[in-house]
Amino acid sequence: MIGGVLGIFGVGLMGGSLGLHARRNGVYVVGCDADPAALDAALAAGAIDTAATAGTLATQADVLVLATHLDPTLRELGSLAKRASALPGLVLDIASVKVPVVAAAEGLENFVATHPLAGSEKSGVGAASADLFDGCAWAYVPSGNAGLDARAREFIRWCGGYPVTTSAEEHDRIVALTSHLPQIVASCYAGLLGESELEAQQLRGPVARELLRISDMNAPMWRDILRANAHHVEPQLRRLAMALSSAADRMEISTGSIARAAP
User: Fold this and answer.
1) Residue 191: is its pLDDT beyond 70?
2) Residue 63 and residue 124: Cα distance in Å, rounded?
3) 69 half-sphere exposure, CB direction, 13 A CA radius
4) Helix H segments across 195-229?
């Protein structure tokens, strides 16, 4: 994978999992986080070897991963652009929306926009796992530099994922349906269940339990994601609303037919 140092900007669930995987495989890991408590937790969990500031992290790493939410990722890309001469040989992000990331990274050398389809309803390095990315699809947007893209694919495979090539626009269009819409559905269902009587909350089937698990994910992170990809998510929501309304209409027709047939 990498013969030197892995730098991780953001040592929560995703960054912490990368760090655990790297250290398990003998790679030295330097971490940075805006929250000093998160850095302390990452050191205690063994997810990083040492901590660095945002200003020095890039100079210490051979590979740098921006493992924060979308908005902090965009801000850090802007900061990196101002000190581009000090960039590592490979810089990746793992944010869930790609069009704004690619736009923010325009002209930034050695950068490849990526998104691993992995995660957890829990947050923080305490929920991190060295195996989090095993077997996951990991999208990447080709940079146009064949050698750089090959390094990105190598890194993805080394982390346990399998690389999937996509454009930024196509990625955002697809995950609106496959990731962002299900999150909204889960949140709406959790709200509906919370308003129900106690018996309904106790008698939960497996699908209900899974929806509730998903609904418990990081709310500020999802606000950033949904705001950035709203133009793709909104039509999918309307399609789902129409499908649900049609299902309710069929139920109404079926119930009416049964009532008319009753003696």
Assistant:
1) yes
2) 22
3) 16
4) 198-202, 206-215, 219-228
